[in-house]
């Protein structure tokens, strides 16, 4: 069997924030230095919600540019665009023929959409739900299986999708295993809460809570966003609860260990105000992200480089997908 393949997709539906950077981008970059990695922009998944061509085009490039600016090496990692690998959609059709409808009925995202209709008093529980949302888990299974992905780094909210992928691979292998078997993938989910970054209101930083700080804010806006993080009214000279404050928790992810220890000591001893802490936080975030932001802006100003990287990566991804689909076609009897 092939060596381990780490594969993950990002849905281009909005701008990245500091939480995505700490919880998803940095671990993905670390994995890319160690394993065989396939990272793609899940543009057809995004189409379910993004219905504006210019916006989708921008988000696809912005997603790829974010990874590249953060240091992903497209020679080592296959960086590609989902829609440019049509074998994925052929596999979606094949997998659909094996997947029970009941499995889709039980999917969290679909159930949540129906619950919203119930809560709104809508008698049609499927109102506003498109088939793309309903079939989302099958497309995601096809993304993974077509590349013979074995390890899938994702956020905890995606774990059901990985379980479904394993189930769907199982249905196929059970039926057609004599001709071809998919490797059954595993999710790589960071269970430690240590990597959950708080948002400005102290809850998990998330686009859906509107408490996020975008990753590539211009310097002056970043400074303002950090200044606006709420803190209590403990006077400068009083001792403070470092771990209970959002700016300190953020600092712990961006500054080096010595700096973090020094700031902690000064906060806990009294004499360091929240304003000074925020200055330290700004300096640390800006030092880490400044050069990446410059690279990001440069890539977005002339997207031809991103487009060329996605094109080349998608050609490499297709080669691998083609090899899988040829064997799958033979196994099911259409070739
Ligand atoms: P959002 O909650 O803003 O919609 P996503 O669900 O799109 O974010 O998350 C994409 C990736 O970023 C996932 O792998 C997720 O685990 C990670 N992530 C999102 N928010 C945070 C956070 N606050 N701290 C750590 N990781 C996060
Ligand atoms: N559903 C994932 C998300 O919303 C994105 C995604 C699509 C994905 N296909 C994938 C992730 C395949 C991992 C593997 O975050």
UniProtKB/TrEMBL annotation:
Q: Which InterPro entries has this protein been placed in?
A: aa-tRNA-synth_I_CS, aa-tRNA-synth_Ic, Rossmann-like_a/b/a_fold, Trp-tRNA-ligase, Trp-tRNA_synthetase
The protein's UniProt keywords, in alphabetical order, are: Aminoacyl-tRNA synthetase, ATP-binding, Ligase, Nucleotide-binding, Protein biosynthesis
Q: GO molecular function of the protein, one example?
A: tryptophan-tRNA ligase activity
UniProt keyword Nucleotide-binding, yes or no:
yes
User: Which E.C. number(s) belong to this protein?
Assistant: 6.1.1.2
User: Which protein family is named in the record?
Assistant: Belongs to the class-I aminoacyl-tRNA synthetase family.
Query: NCBIfam families recorded for this chain?
Result: PRK12556.1, trpS
Output this protein's name: Tryptophan--tRNA ligase
Organism annotation: Nocardiopsis tropica
């Amino acid at each position: 069997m092939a060596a381990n393949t780490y594969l993950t997709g990002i849905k281009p539906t909005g701008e990245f924030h500091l939480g995505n950077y700490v919880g998803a981008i940095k671990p993905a970059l670390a994995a890319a230095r160690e394993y065989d990695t396939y990272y793609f922009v899940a543009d057809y998944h995004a189409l379910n919600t993004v219905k504006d061509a210019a916006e989708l085009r921008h988000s696809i490039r912005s997603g790829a540019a974010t990874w590249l600016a953060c240091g992903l090496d497209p020679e080592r990692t296959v960086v590609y665009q989902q829609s440019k690998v049509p074998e994925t959609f052929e596999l979606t059709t094949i997998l659909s023929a094996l997947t029970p409808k009941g499995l889709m009925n039980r999917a969290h995202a679909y159930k949540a959409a129906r619950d919203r209709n119930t809560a709104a008093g809508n008698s049609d529980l499927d109102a506003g739900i498109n088939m793309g949302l309903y079939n989302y888990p099958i497309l995601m299974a096809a993304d993974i299986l077509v590349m013979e992905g074995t390890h899938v780094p994702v956020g905890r909210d995606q774990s059901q999708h990985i379980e479904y992928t394993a189930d769907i691979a199982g249905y196929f292998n059970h039926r057609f295993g004599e001709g071809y078997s998919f490797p059954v993938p595993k999710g790589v989910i960071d269970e430690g809460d240590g990597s959950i970054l708080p948002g400005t209101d102290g809850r998990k930083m998330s686009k859906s809570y509107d408490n996020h700080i975008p990753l590539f804010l211009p310097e002056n806006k970043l400074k303002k966003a950090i200044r606006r993080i709420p803190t209590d009214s403990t006077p400068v000279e009083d001792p403070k609860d470092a771990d209970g404050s959002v700016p300190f928790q953020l600092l712990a992810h961006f500054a080096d260990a010595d700096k973090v220890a020094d700031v902690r000591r000064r906060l806990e001893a009294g004499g360091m105000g929240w304003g000074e802490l925020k200055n330290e936080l700004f300096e640390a975030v800006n030092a880490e992200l400044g050069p990446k932001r410059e690279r990001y802006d440069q890539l977005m100003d002339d997207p031809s480089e991103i487009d060329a990287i996605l094109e080349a990566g998608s050609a490499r991804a297709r080669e691998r997908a083609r090899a899988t689909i040829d064997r799958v076609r033979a196994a099911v009897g259409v070739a």
